[in-house]
Specification:
The complex is a heterodimer of chains A (156) and B (271). Chain A is α+β, with helices and mostly antiparallel strands and 156 residues long. Chain A is built from 3 helices and 5 strands; from the N terminus they run H-E-E-E-E-E-H-H. In chain A, strands 1-2-3-4-5 form a 5-stranded antiparallel β-sheet. A 6-stranded mixed β-sheet of chain B has the order 3-4-2-1-17-16, with no helix packed on it. The chains are: A alpha+beta (156), B alpha+beta (271). Chain A binds chain B through residues 44, 47-50, 52, 63, 68, 70, 73, 75, 78-84, 87, 101-102, 109-111, 113, 137-138, 141-142, 145, and chain B through 58-61, 63-64, 77-84, 106, 110-111, 114-115, 117-118, 121-122, 125-126, 133.
Chain lengths: 156, 271
């Protein structure tokens, strides 16, 4: 029987899968916080996405099905308290990626749906979310309350 | 009996009215959305005249919803927060544990029905995971859902899956395309329109458009079947007064010049 398949499906020039980018970033947080705050990426399964808000899609485009992943911040010392920082969705072609997140302004907080068209876009958006004042506040609160809990738990 | 009150305050300074609600209805747990007052201000109002001392339940990640309790805040722990919801675990001594989900969903000004329904799926999955984490399904979801009880995000099996009949909810779950979905019971159906006691909804909005509901039931309480023997429909009310001052205009609409554009809801659980 002839094997008609190519020898490999790996293309080294291909960008990383969005979920792989998220998992890499998640693995870095614990080191910066003595593991008091960690991060985790959880698959949410396939969901209907929001393609109609994509500026490069026609306005009457139907929502598409996409793979969703949630990025959580976790405080292990607070009974594994979790905070949902943002969600991404992508179809089988990986990019563009849809980001669902809350943007805080001076007046209000708005739910945002934005699009990353390649890995660089995605990394830039993640950096913006990680550095956002709200994210900093949440991580600080998790750190402080974890430290308090650890102090309470010291045996004497 | 534990008395809960939820109110979207529309960022108004309503500390005096919350204190009146506390005194009139003997509220044990206040769940507040769009509350621009800080805890020190609100605690000052709540604890000025009453015999009970209220506590502020500290937030970690959720800043849009404030919780005040008559019991010490240490009995309320944070399980999970999202941008628009918080999931807390109430572990009161000698009472049944309760998973309390409080939500203020994105409004239709910002999100269409598709997005609200998609967010409902996420919230439903978060609740299911939290129920696994705490080991029970005595869950109540309360909040300003910015959806009516009949909208897809509230009704869909993969969404909040909230039904109008206790008998249906008591089946526990149903299977759709091979996947099982747990029910909520939505008692707000019974309060829609004029035939029930109290106002026809919790929020009024009127535009010059062809399709207009006028009254909406955005503020809702949804109850898991495992809690239904601890809940009585008679103990669920849409409040039109704080006990001293009416929350309605002379035409019977929510008076946002005096109070909020939403009316508070009050319910009791026999924990």
């Amino acid at each position: 029987m002839k094997d008609l398949w190519p020898d490999t499906f790996v293309d080294p020039s291909q960008p990383k899968a969005p979920v792989a980018v998220l998992r890499e970033q998640a693995s870095l947080l614990g080191e910066k916080t003595n593991n008091l705050v960690t991060a985790e990426v959880k698959p949410l399964g396939r969901q209907i996405g929001k393609a109609q808000n994509d500026p490069f899609m026609p306005p009457d485009a139907e929502p598409e099905e996409e793979f969703r992943y949630i990025f959580y911040l976790i405080a292990p010392a607070l009974d594994h308290y979790r905070y949902r920082l943002f969600t991404i969705g992508n179809n089988i072609e990986l990019y563009p990626v849809t980001l669902y997140w809350s943007q805080e302004t001076e007046e209000s907080t708005k739910e945002q749906v934005t699009f990353a068209y390649n890995q660089e876009d995605l990394e830039e958006m993640l950096a913006n979310i990680f550095r956002a004042p709200k994210t900093q506040r949440v991580i600080r609160a998790m750190l402080l309350q974890s430290e308090e809990r650890e102090a309470d738990d010291v045996p004497f | 009996m534990t008395v809960f009150a939820f109110w979207n305050l529309h960022n108004q300074q309503l500390g005096h009215m919350i204190a009146n609600l506390a005194a009139t209805y003997d509220v044990d747990v206040f769940l507040l959305a769009e509350c621009s007052m800080g805890p020190s201000q609100l605690l000052s109002d709540l604890n000025t005249n009453g015999s009970s001392l209220y506590h502020y339940v500290r937030n970690i990640g959720q800043e849009k919803i404030q919780i005040y309790t008559k019991f010490p805040a240490r009995f309320v722990t944070s399980v999970l927060d999202g941008p628009r919801y918080t999931i807390r675990h109430l572990t009161l001594p000698a009472m049944a544990e309760l998973l309390l989900v409080v939500s203020h969903f994105p409004s239709k000004v910002n999100w269409d029905e598709h997005s609200q329904a998609a967010e409902s799926v996420m919230l439903a999955q978060e609740i299911a995971q939290a129920e696994i984490d705490v080991g029970h399904q005595r869950t109540v979801l309360v909040g300003d859902l910015n959806m009516n009880p009949f909208e897809p995000g509230v009704v869909n099996a993969a969404g909040l899956h909230a039904v109008m009949s206790k008998n249906i909810a008591l089946n526990g779950s149903r299977t759709v395309q091979g996947k099982s979905y747990h029910y909520f019971y939505n008692p707000m159906w019974s309060l829609l329109g004029d035939a029930s006691d109290g106002p026809p909804g919790t929020h009024y909005y009127s535009r010059s458009s062809h399709r207009e509901l006028f009254w909406n039931m955005f503020d809702q309480v949804l109850i898991r079947p495992d809690l239904l023997d601890r809940f009585n429909n008679r103990d669920l009310r849409i409040l039109d007064t704080d006990g001293r001052t009416t929350l309605l205009t002379a035409n019977g609409l929510p008076d946002s010049t005096v109070a909020s554009d939403h009316l508070p809801i009050l319910f009791t659980l026999n924990l």
